[in-house]
Design brief:
It comes from Bacteroides stercorirosoris. By secondary structure, this protein is mainly beta. Helix content is about 0%, strand content about 50%. It folds into two domains: about 130 residues, Immunoglobulin-like (Sandwich); about 150 residues, Jelly Rolls (Sandwich). The strands form six sheets. It has a five-stranded antiparallel beta sheet with strand order 2-7-6-9-10, with no helix packed on it. Strands 12-14-19-16-17 form a five-stranded antiparallel beta sheet, with no helix packed on it. A four-stranded antiparallel beta sheet has the order 11-21-15-18, with no helix packed on it.
Length: about 300
């Protein structure tokens, strides 16, 4: 059938909107119109991503249709959503979805240049869980006493471990440098005698040996335990400062469990020494606010 008419065509390769018609443009053309071929549900697939749904479909045969419309109801915004894809597009990412809502129903409909639609194909798809976000609300220093600290590699001639918590940055703790040296890892262990969970740490590098930057922790495992025998690494620090007197404060760590023992386990040092030293050490309890979009009450 040969016609001369104004028809609606997709503007752009891929356009997402809440209303479809306002993103379509009208052009004057002459030519033949072919009935659009509907997409079969069997050629459409979905992938559940964190807080998203990825829709994919097979490329259509030549002249099967001119553009594709996908409609669905968003239970989060309580709105009907319409998205449009050009004939050359074979996938679409649906953002801000939730696993809590179960199946989403997507309605695929193809159109020719004259805006004539095919039959509608329904495809159901699920979202992956939207990731939770965590925010630090506060941190509180846990006051440590020297008798709560221990190590596997105390240097016998200087730098007792109690110096880490004496409040004096001019003193220091030193692991064994004298013969016979002990292979790394060397650790600082804390016996809290009470439970802790979310935490952060602070330390200051030794302040009096300005002539060298060797012997600073460069890779550290943060380990927890409830019996001082079985240890779990819940975080690793790297890229740590080596300059004298430098202060370091970690981000918060969320182990997802409580613990009563803690280790600052040094596995590598600046200068590849078999020892490390520090001036001061602090441990913080951290209060965390968790926002979970999958469980937060809905309006």
């Amino acid at each position: 059938m040969n016609l001369k008419f104004k028809y609606i065509i997709v503007a752009g390769l891929l356009v997402g909107m809440t209303g479809c018609d306002d993103k379509l443009e009208t052009f004057e053309v002459a030519g033949s119109v072919t009935t659009p071929t509907a997409l079969a549900a069997s050629v459409v697939s979905s992938e559940a991503l964190p807080g998203q749904i990825k829709l994919s479909w097979e490329a259509p045969a030549e002249n099967a249709f001119d553009y594709l419309q996908i409609k669905y109801y968003d239970p989060l915004t309580k709105e009907d959503v319409c998205k449009i894809a050009s004939v050359g597009t074979t996938e679409m990412l649906i953002d801000d979805t939730r696993a809590r809502f179960g199946d989403y129903s997507f309605y695929f409909q193809t159109f020719n240049a004259a805006h004539q639609g095919s039959a509608v194909t329904e495809v159901k798809a699920k979202s992956g869980e939207a990731p939770a976000t965590t925010t630090e609300k506060s941190r509180t220093e846990v006051k440590l006493a020297g008798d709560q600290l221990s190590t596997n590699a105390q240097e016998p001639t200087e730098g007792p471990i109690k110096n880490l918590v004496d409040g004096n940055s001019g003193t220091f703790f030193h692991t064994r440098w004298s013969s016979p040296q002990l292979e790394l890892p060397h650790y600082i262990q804390i016996d809290f005698k009470e439970s802790h969970e979310n935490f952060a740490i602070y330390y200051q590098n030794r302040t009096d040996n300005t002539w060298t930057s060797d012997g600073r922790p460069s890779v550290v495992e943060l380990q927890i335990s409830n019996d001082a025998e079985n240890w779990e690494t819940v975080g690793t620090l790297s890229g740590l400062p080596s300059a004298h007197s430098t202060e370091y404060t970690s981000d918060f760590v969320m182990p997802g469990k409580t613990f009563t023992y803690f280790r600052f386990n040094v596995t590598a040092t600046s200068g590849n020494t078999k020892y490390f030293n520090l001036a001061e050490f602090k441990f913080y309890d951290v209060e965390i606010e968790v926002y979970d979009p999958e469980t937060v009450p809905l309006d």
